[in-house]
Amino acid sequence: MIQTKGYAAQNAETNLAPWDFERREVGPHDVQFDILFCGVCHSDLHQIKNEWGGSIFPMVPGHEIVGKVVAVGSHVKKFKIGDLAGTGCLVDSCRTCENCQEGLEQYCLNGSSPTYNGLEQDRKTPTYGGYSNTIVVHEDFVLHISEKLNLAAVAPLLCAGITTYSPLRHWKVGKGHRLAVLGLGGLGHMAVKFGVAFGAEVTVLSTSADKEADAKKLGAHKFVVTKDAEQFKSVKGYFDFILDTVSAPHDMNAYVSLLRTNGIHICVGVPPGEIQVHPFALLGGRRSVAGSGIGGLPETQEMLDYCAEHNIVSDIEMIDIKDIQTAYDRMIKGDVRYRFVIDMATL
Ligand code: NAP
Ligand code: ZN
Ligand code: ZN
Predict the structure, then answer these.
(1) pLDDT tens, 3-41?
(2) What is the pLDDT of residues 236-277, one digit of tens each?
(3) Quick one: which H or E segment has residue 70?
(4) What values do phi and psi take at 220, rounded to 5?
(5) Mutational test site, ligand 1, from 226, 246, 299, 317, max ligand atoms within 8 Å of CB
(6) Is 14 helix (H, G, I), strand (E, B) or coil?
(7) Would you state the pLDDT for residue 44?
(8) Atom of ligand 1 nearest to the CA of 271
(9) Which of 164, 238, 275, 286 has the fewest CB within 10 Å, making it most exposed?
C-alpha cells in the first residue's frame, strides 16, 4: 500500500486535521500522481458538514486535483512519468451502462465512484480526495493538463469548470441568448467566462453589490443586485437561461419569474433541502426547471482543451492547508474571489 498524508474530517462536527491513510498500489491500468494543487469547492463543505446526508467519515475532501505523474502501471498508454495530470469529481464508474458508453459517467446507471465521500466499484473501499499528497486513479479517469496554463488556476476547472461548461454546451447557450448567472462564486465566475466565450449576453445576478466591478472584469455585460427590488424588477421575463449556482436555500419562484417564454432555470447549485416551485411560476410562459451534474470524462477533457486554447483559467486565491477552516468560513459568507486553491506543498 502507498502511505499517504492528508487532511480529513473525522465527523460532521469537528474541523479538518492531518490524517495519514493508505492508497492502493499502482495497478496495471493505474496512474499515480503527486498532488500539487487542489481547489476548494463548496461541495467539500456541504459534505464535511453532512448537509446532503449519508457522509462517509473519515473524509478527505477535494475533487479539483492537479499534479505530476510519478508512476504508471504496465498497461497504461495515455500517461508517462513527469506528465501533468488532473482528476475531477469521479475516479471510476461501471463503464458498461448506456450512459457510461456515451461518456456520461457522471450519470452512471449503476452508480459512479466519486473521488471522495464514496466507494470504489467494489462497493466497499472508501475513496479519499485531493487534500492529500498523492493519488492513484485508473488512467481512464485521469485528464491531460496543458503545460501552457497556470497549473494552480487550472485545478478549479476540474469541478467548477466542467459543471458550468457542460450545461452551457448541452443547451447550446451562445449568440443571441440572454444568460443569467445566479451567484458569483467558484462556479458562477467560471459560468461567466464560458458564457461570454460562447457569445451569450451575460448578466450576473448577485446578492453582493461589491462584486459588480469583478463581474464586469470577468466579461459580464450586466450586473443585477438581487436584493435591490427595483433592479430585480427590471429583469423580469428577460432571460433565456438562468444558471443557478447558489449554495444556500433561495426563493426559486422569484428567480423563475425572470425567465422569458420557454426560458430554462438550470440548477447546478445544491443547497441543503428541497426546492419548491409553484406550477403557476412555470406554466405562465412555458418555463422549465432543469438540473445538470458535473460532466463526463470526454467532455471534461474537451473543456480542458478548450480552456488551454482560449486561455481560460479560474481566478484563485492560494492558501496553505492549515488555513482551510478560515477559507470555509469565508466561503460561507460569499467572500471568495473566486476560488480557494490549496498549495499542497504546505501539507
Ligand atoms: P461558492 O463559491 O460558495 O459560491 C456560491 C455563491 O452563491 C456565493 O458566492 C454567492 O454569490 C451565492 N449565494 C450564497 N448564499 C446565497 C443566498 N442565500 N442567496 C443567494 N445567493 C447566495 O460555491 P461553489 O463552489 O461555486 O458551489 C456552488 C454550489 O454548486 C454548491 O451548492 C455546490 O455544492 C454546488 N456544486 C454542484 C455541482 C454539480 O455537479 N451540479 C458541482 C459543483 C458544485 P453572490 O455573492 O454573488 O450572491
Ligand atoms: Zn465540486
Ligand atoms: Zn455506468
Answers:
(1) 999 999 999 999 999 999 999 999 999 999 999 999 999
(2) 999 999 999 999 999 999 999 999 999 999 999 999 999 999
(3) strand 65-72
(4) -65, 145
(5) 246
(6) coil
(7) 98
(8) 32
(9) 286
The 10 Å Cβ neighbour count of residue 155 is 34
Provide the residues around ligand 2 (an ion) whose CB is within 5 A.
41, 43, 159
CA distance 116 to 134: 14
187: Cβ contacts below 8 Å, ≥ 6 apart = 42, 160, 163, 164, 245, 268, 269
Integer angstrom CA distances of residue 251 from 7, 255, 271, 275: 35, 7, 12, 8
- Give the integer Cα–Cα distance in Å for 134 and 69: 9
Cβ neighbors of 317 (< 8 A, separation 6 or more) are 336, 337, 339, 340, 341
Q: Ligand 2 centroid vs 300 CA: distance in angstroms?
A: 13
Residue with the nearest Cα to atom 22 of ligand 1?
Answer: 246
Q: Is 55 helix (H, G, I), strand (E, B) or coil?
A: coil
User: Which atom of ligand 1 lies at the shortest distance from residue 268's CA?
Assistant: 41
User: What's the CA-to-centroid distance between 280 and ligand 2, angstroms?
Assistant: 32
Residue nearest to atom 19 of ligand 1 (CA): 250
Atom of ligand 1 nearest to the CA of 208: 46
